[in-house]
Automatic annotation (TrEMBL):
Residues 26-36 have a biased composition (Low complexity). This is Peptidase M23. Residues 26-47, 231-274 are annotated as: Disordered. Residues 87-180 form the M23ase beta-sheet core domain. It comes from the Bacteria. The keyword Signal applies. It holds the Pfam family Peptidase_M23. Residues 1-16 form the signal peptide. Keywords: Signal. CDD domains: M23_peptidase. InterPro entries: Dup_hybrid_motif (IPR011055), M23ase_b-sheet_dom (IPR016047).
């Protein structure tokens, strides 16, 4: 029977000295180390990212209208709903979509003395796309000799080269790019831009090549009418012997015949250099 200190030691779990069957030795407990700072944890290597093409959002395929060169362009409305694409002189201007060449102007008639609205884009080509949208590339340096109204083109086909003709004469070379719908040539203010192009340019540039302006164009044409009047930059300077007012003439609007209004306008050669 344990008595006294031996009993107290046994009760506390410590062996009493000299007690039979009890050992005074203890088994040391391994000490756990506590990190003094945050340990760097390296995640295991993962699989390479899977590239997913953008969704197809229309049956049409587009390309950026300047190819082979570094470009920049403004993504906001200044005066007209068009974009100036800055690029080196001589860069290729290409058709942004499959379609047909509609208008061709190979002569730069613009003069600061008159500043006629129809002349401001200088040398230009318009393309009526298979999407029903009209595209204009202006301020061109050259128009390729093969380019004539009625020529069938594919997206990416070269039509001319970037320049600074028209009222861009004293600026760096650029492409005047506009989106609208087909109209008779006398309604020149329509072809110079009705639909804001920069969302579509940005999509085509970044690889979403089926993003189409068709729906926006149709909605705008329904709201404004097929042949809306001009509301901005409509008149001519009419100086330098023109004999007219130097102030712009607002809202020019030809009055087409009923037949002309119903008939789809034919392709036009504005100027043909032999």
């Amino acid at each position: 029977m344990l008595t006294g200190a031996a009993c107290l030691a046994a009760a506390c779990g410590a062996p009493a000295a000299g007690v039979t069957g009890m050992s005074a030795s203890t088994t040391p407990v391994a000490a756990t180390s506590t990190p003094t700072g945050a340990e760097e944890i390296s995640p295991p290597p993962g699989d390479p990212p899977v590239l997913i093409p953008p969704p197809k959002v229309s049956p049409y395929t587009y390309v950026f209208p300047v190819q082979g060169c570094k470009v920049s362009y403004r993504r906001k409305l200044l005066v007209l709903p068009k974009t100036t694409i800055w690029a080196k002189k001589g860069c290729a201007f290409v058709s942004p979509v499959d379609g047909e060449v509609r208008e061709v102007n190979t002569t730069d008639r613009w003069s600061p003395a008159t500043d006629r609205g129809p002349d401001r884009e200088g040398r230009f080509v318009t393309i009526l796309g298979v999407d029903g949208v009209l595209y204009l590339g202006g301020h061109l340096d050259t128009v390729d000799p093969k380019v004539r109204p009625g020529l069938k083109v594919k997206a990416g086909d070269r039509l001319g080269t970037v320049g600074n003709s028209g009222n861009a004469r004293n600026t760096a070379s650029n492409l005047y790019f506009a989106i609208s719908w087909p109209a008779p040539p006398e309604y020149w203010w329509i072809r110079r831009g009705m639909v804001k192009p920069w969302p579509y340019l940005e999509a085509w540039e970044k690889g979403n090549r089926t993003y189409s302006p068709r729906e926006e164009m149709l909605a705008l044409r329904k709201r404004l009418g097929n042949l809306p009047p001009c509301t901005k930059l409509c008149g001519s300077a009419q100086t330098g012997g023109g004999g007219g007012s130097s102030r712009p003439q607002p809202n020019p609007r030809p009055t087409p015949t009923k037949k002309a209004a119903k008939k789809s306008p034919e392709p036009v050669v504005i100027d043909d250099v032999n």
